[in-house]
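Narrative of accomplishments. A recurring question from our advisory board has been how the design workflow behaves on a single, concrete structure rather than in aggregate. To address it, we present the structure tokens for one chain from the evaluation set, followed by the sequence designed for it. No filtering or post-editing was applied between the two.
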């Protein structure tokens, strides 16, 4: 049977998401909420529109997610000191606490996915996937000649 790259990547991503979702529900959070927490941890104080862009969702979708997460005490909006129309997003103490529970879960799912794959195979896999990502993003790949 012929394998197609997009199909295989899609299946692997779907299975990883499904496994993560099952485990994250036990903690009481959804994967989209984890994605927001993950982004805010790295970009605390980001504007809602910037968050939507990173998550690749519509601003209204991000706004609804933030509304629910604010109601759950995971994030808070603070007025932007330079733009009275904008809000800056921050994790609450409760939201930061979830990071400690969810990061090990991400590692666990990755370890499960890579079980039986040698370190050398993993290195090759990530190198290849990075090249594919760069090809599709339109960014040039540095060749071996560029490094000389």
């Amino acid at each position: 049977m012929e394998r197609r790259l997009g199909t295989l990547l899609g299946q692997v991503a779907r299975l990883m998401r499904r496994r993560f979702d099952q485990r994250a529900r036990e903690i009481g959070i959804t994967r989209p909420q984890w994605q927001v927490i993950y982004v805010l941890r790295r970009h605390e104080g980001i504007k809602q529109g910037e968050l939507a862009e990173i998550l690749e969702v519509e601003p209204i979708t991000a706004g609804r997610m933030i509304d629910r997460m604010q109601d759950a005490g995971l994030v808070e909006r603070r007025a932007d000191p330079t733009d009275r129309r904008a809000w800056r997003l921050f994790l609450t103490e409760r939201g930061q606490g979830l990071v400690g529970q969810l990061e090990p879960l991400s590692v666990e799912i990755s370890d499960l996915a890579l079980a039986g794959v040698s370190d050398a195979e993993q290195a090759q896999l990530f190198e290849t996937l990075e090249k594919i990502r760069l090809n599709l993003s339109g960014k040039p790949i540095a060749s071996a000649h560029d490094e000389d």
